[in-house]
């Protein structure tokens, strides 16, 4: 009898310790001990150290990523703001469009909330690490180079040649290919050609391998011990720096000696030439960190977006038919003698329906499920007081999949973009404000060109496993990387 009493007592004591003390340790550490100083939104601070990471991983690995936010909404009401402890920091998840926009637009109160590993790997002169005045100066300098009509018009030819070659090559393959993997390689070729004018197979292969190691480091702990993921990423970054230093040295020599003045300029040429109002340009360290960042952000986004757009079009014949009709109309409007020439910027701007297809792809896919910011000081946010140093997780996926904002959000429906009016902050795939992704126009240009040649060229995607499950981390993708045949109708 005494043994049973002892066992029951031990179990009760363990339960009290685990769920009465341990389970509430984060709540006490970050909320309760401040004695009501902060008016935080409701939520779940989770367990010590891990917070709510386990339910987050469970939701995203189960194929139901939205269930993570739905749990907060069902527990604490659909208020669109919830406190939690996630990714190693006390955080507030934000799903209200207007509040999301306020956070992303307000550079005075909210800084980038990237991890230590990300800050180290992107470099001290990257856009996400430099001071606000320097950030504004760099943005002004590079704006016309990465999103201006003149620059984009130059890049069209770079993109077209690679897209056409890749499509023709894939269509001749007898075996299925991992379409996503092929898209990543193609996107990388395009960026290398646009940014530094490189197009040799060996160099492209070397750079792609380096960026694979570099990319993995962003999701690791910043522990520089030989053999770790972060250590390999640092090694890859150092090698990328050496490569770009060599490229810059060669281009400066060419400029000095006026070599190849008539050749097509790439973005690095333009970055070397650009000057601000006072005649100051960009130093080599800044250019290198910009190039590293552009490559990192650019090839993944474009590759995944193009794959998704093709998948959605293949699954929606009516939408594909409308897109095809628009592309045929644009080509047929050319003089007969020019039917086979390349696209112009004017023609790309006429692709109104295709633009809706691209926006709907970005909305439904939500490649970056969250955008992270950090409070610079105590902040009043939508009636709540958020402490200095807390992360604000702008949950873009929750906004893009909210049925109160987008009717039937699970459906792929480009017609929802017929009405240009929408709630502020309800479409934020590239962020907003001064920190808006600078490559948005270049990315959309690349997607539009690929879709044009895929659709108008009579290509089709025949997936081997059309119903295969999805992985949602780190980016949403089919588990088979979209194994498929690229077929061209005769």
Task: Set down the secondary structure blueprint.
Layout: H1 2-21, H2 25-30, E1 43-44, H3 53-61, H4 67-76, E2 81-86, E3 89-94, H5 97-105, E4 110-112, H6 116-122, H7 132-146, H8 149-172, E5 177-178, H9 179-196, H10 201-217, H11 229-257, H12 267-273, H13 284-315, H14 317-332, H15 345-349, H16 352-365, E6 371-375, E7 379-381, E8 384-386, E9 391-394, H17 396-400, H18 440-456, E10 459-463, E11 470-471, E12 477-478, E13 483-488
Helix pairs in contact: 8-9, 8-18, 9-13, 10-11, 11-13, 13-16, 13-18, 14-16
Q: What structural keywords apply?
A:
heme binding; alpha+beta; Beta-amyrin 11-oxidase-like; Cyt_P450_CS; Cytochrome p450; Cyt_P450_sf; about 500 residues; 6-stranded mixed β-sheet; about 55% helix
General description of the model:
The protein is α+β, with helices and mostly antiparallel strands. The protein has a single domain, classed as Cytochrome p450 (Orthogonal Bundle). Helix content is 53%, strand content 10%. It has 18 helices and 13 strands. It has helices at 2-21, 25-30, 53-61, 67-76, 97-105, 116-122, 132-146, 149-172, 179-196, 201-217, 229-257, 267-273, 284-315, 317-332, 345-349, 352-365, 396-400, 440-456; strands at 43-44, 81-86, 89-94, 110-112, 177-178, 371-375, 379-381, 384-386, 391-394, 459-463, 470-471, 477-478, 483-488. β11 (470-471) and β12 (477-478) form a beta hairpin. α8 (149-172) packs antiparallel against α9 (179-196), α10 (201-217) crosses α11 (229-257) and α13 packs across α16. The radius of gyration is 25 Å and the shape is globular. The mean pLDDT is 89. This is Beta-amyrin 11-oxidase-like. Keywords: Heme, Iron, Membrane, Metal-binding, Monooxygenase, Oxidoreductase, Transmembrane, Transmembrane helix. Belongs to the cytochrome P450 family. It is found in: Membrane. Its main location: membrane.
């Amino acid at each position: 009898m005494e043994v049973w009493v002892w066992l029951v007592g031990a179990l009760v004591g363990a339960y009290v310790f685990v769920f009465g003390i341990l389970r509430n340790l984060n709540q006490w550490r970050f909320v309760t001990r401040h004695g009501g100083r902060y008016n935080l939104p409701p939520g779940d601070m989770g367990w010590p150290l891990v917070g709510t990471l386990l339910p987050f991983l469970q939701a995203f690995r189960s194929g139901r990523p939205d269930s993570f936010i739905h749990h907060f909404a069902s527990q604490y009401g659909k208020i669109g703001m919830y406190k939690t402890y996630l990714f190693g920091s006390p955080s507030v998840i934000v799903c209200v469009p207007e509040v999301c926009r306020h956070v992303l637009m307000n550079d005075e109160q909210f800084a980038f909330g990237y991890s230590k590993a990300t800050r180290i790997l992107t470099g001290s002169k990257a856009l996400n690490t430099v001071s606000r005045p320097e950030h504004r100066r760099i943005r002004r300098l590079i704006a016309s180079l990465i999103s201006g009509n003149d620059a984009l018009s130059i890049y069209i030819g770079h993109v077209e040649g690679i897209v056409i070659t890749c499509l023709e090559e894939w269509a001749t393959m007898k075996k299925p290919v991992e379409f996503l993997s092929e898209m990543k390689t193609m996107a990388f070729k395009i960026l290398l050609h646009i940014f530094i004018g490189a197009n040799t197979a060996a160099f492209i292969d070397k750079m792609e391998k380096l960026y694979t190691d570099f990319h993995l480091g962003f999701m690791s702990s910043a522990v520089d011990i030989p053999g770790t993921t972060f250590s390999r990423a640092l090694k890859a970054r150092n090698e990328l720096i050496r490569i770009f230093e060599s490229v810059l040295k060669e281009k400066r020599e060419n400029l000095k000696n006026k070599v190849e003045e008539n050749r097509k300029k790439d973005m690095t040429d333009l970055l070397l030439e650009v000057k601000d109002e006072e005649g100051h340009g960009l130093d080599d360290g800044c250019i290198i960190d910009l190039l590293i960042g552009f490559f990192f952000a650019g090839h993944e986004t474009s590759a995944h977006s193009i794959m998704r757009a093709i998948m959605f079009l293949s699954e929606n014949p009516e939408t594909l038919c409308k897109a095809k009709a628009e592309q045929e109309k644009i080509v047929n409007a050319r003089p007969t003698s020019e039917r086979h020439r390349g696209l112009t910027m004017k023609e790309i701007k006429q692709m109104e329906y295709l633009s809706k297809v691209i926006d709907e792809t970005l909305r439904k896919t939500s490649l970056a499920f969250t955008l992270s910011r950090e409070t610079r000081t105590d902040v009043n946010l939508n009636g709540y007081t958020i402490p200095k140093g807390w992360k604000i997780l702008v949950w873009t996926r929750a906004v893009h999949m909210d049925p109160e904002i987008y009717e039937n959000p699970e459906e792929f429906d480009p017609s929802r973009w017929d009405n240009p009016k929408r709630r502020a902050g309800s479409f934020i795939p590239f962020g907003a404000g001064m920190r808006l992704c600078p490559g948005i126009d270049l990315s959309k240009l690349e997607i539009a060109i690929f879709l044009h040649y895929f659709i108008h060229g009579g290509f089709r995607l025949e997936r081997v496993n059309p119903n295969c499950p999805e992985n949602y981390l780190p980016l949403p993708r089919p588990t088979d990387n979209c194994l498929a045949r690229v077929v061209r109708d005769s």
